[in-house]
Amino acid sequence: QAQLVESGGGLVQAGGSLRLSCAASGRTFSTYTMGWFRQTPGKEREFVAAVSRSGGDTEYADSVKGRFSISRDIAKTTVYLQMNSLKPEDTALYYCAATRTWIATMTSEYRYWGQGTQVTVSS
After folding, report:
1. What is the pLDDT of residues 28-52, one digit of tens each?
2. Is pLDDT at 57 greater than 80 in this prediction?
3. Does position 106 have pLDDT exceeding 90, yes or no?
4. Is the bond leading into 103 cis (omega within 30 degrees of zero)?
5. CB 98 within 8 A of CB 34
6. How confident is the model at residue 71, as a pLDDT?
């Protein structure tokens, strides 16, 4: 079983950067695909990015391609989401999630979820 704790959210001006972290507990971290999702009030939770078990493959939503980068440090059992050129529309609660599936871009494919970290981008 994986337990996930996100951190790194905050308030940033448009054009700025943030790096989110997701610390995973459990000895089987390296066997999970890890993903980031985001959600705003009244909207569905949407896929942002995912990284494969080895870290060698990644997948991104079209809205963040070229601006966000996902990576993982297996030794530290941590997943990162580097967010550059942030826009006000990136404002959301960001969630880290884990699954055994690759490629996984739907919320229903993920079994474990963190509590989320808020990202707010001001214009």
Report:
1. 888 899 999 999 999 999 999 999 9
2. yes
3. yes
4. yes
5. yes
6. 97
Closest CA to 94 of 44, 39, 15, 16: 39
Task: Report how far apart, in Å, the C-alpha atoms of 111 and of each of 32, 80, 106, 115 are.
Answer: 10, 19, 11, 13
| Three-state helix/strand/coil letters over the chain | CCEEEEECCEEEECCCCEEEEEEEECCCHHHCEEEEEEECCCCCCEEEEEECCCCCCEEECCCCCCCEEEEEECCCCEEEEEECCCCHHHCEEEEEEEECCCCCCCHHHCCEECCCEEEEEEC
Average pLDDT value over all residues in the chain: 95
CA angle 54–94–116, rounded 5-degree value: 95
With 0-12 CB in 10 A as exposed, 13-18 as middle and 19+ as buried, what is 61? middle
- DSSP β-bridge partners for residue 35: 50, 97
Looking at residues 53-69, what average pLDDT do you find?
Answer: 96
Which carries the bigger pLDDT value, residue 50 or residue 2?
50
